# Entry
Amino acid sequence: MMETASKGAREDDSVRTMIRSLVCLAALVCAGSAAAQSYPNKPIRMIVTFAAGGPTDVIARIIAQKASETFGHQIVVENIAGAGGNIGLANALRAPADGYTLVAVSTGFIVNPSLYSKVPYAIKDFAPISLVAASPNVITVHPSVPAKTVQELIALAKANPGKYSYGQPGAGSTPHLAGELFKLKFGLDITMVPFGSAAPAITSTIGGHTPIAFTALPPAISNIQDGKLRGLAVLATKRNASVPDVPTMAEAGVPDQESDTVTGIVTLAGTPPEIVERWHREIVRIVALPDVNQRLRTLGFDPVGNSPAEFAERIRTEGAKWDKVAKEAKIVLE
# Structure
């Protein structure tokens, strides 16, 4: 009898514990839902992981300005640059996952875990909201370089091992990885020369010091248009309207060499899904605005505005692609 009573008491305790757990869970869900419904009720911080003035910063400020008008609260853009974006991302991780800290990221967010010996974040620490825009990388050469096409450049480099060099805007950037992928694919002996950004890499190529350049398209556009650089190919599946005479790599007879520079918005993992979805809808709306659409295209970017799931898949596939290149090219950054 006593054993039966004790067993019954234990079962009652288990039921009460389960009920308390369910009540707590329901309270948390309700609290999260209420927070999402009142969001935002104070200024929002948007961290840009690069210095002011670059394409990631410019695009982030476009989004911040337009979204501030919609939400009725200021979105403060804060530039926290360094280590390919790692410092800004580490800073963001100190914030609560409440939707009041967003991060404008570039492709570095995707590839850094494959490049750096120590990375202060994991991809899973962040929730993708939307890819805002993407711009293809481009191969350019000094006008004195005999090669008029990518195929001719490959032949020229093979005939002159060690003679040519290429400039790129930063160790671990997608132009850097694109250059290494190009070398690996065709077994080329071309010296890589890193620069602190695209501007000095392009200046070096215009001066003939590094006769080849792999950079993002935006900083190269005006120089291609002015004839200071010869554009051999955009590393994209379609031509770019800013330089319509420059073929794609596939058109140049060199498939599977596509790469681009992207700008997207992420927030902290664990942020209420209603807030993530609200931001997604807002970014899609902003990107579709005629003035924003035109501004992005003038910068050399193609507007995107995809879903969190689509952005997450893009992060996964890009990460796997560049992880393989980093390992084969033995790229390790400190």
User: Anything to note?
Assistant: The chain has two domains: 41-135+261-328, 136-234. The beta strands are 44-48, 75-79, 101-105, 126-141, 165-168, 191-194, 212-216, 230-234, 260-268, 302-303. The CA atoms of residues 237 and 250 lie 7 Å apart.
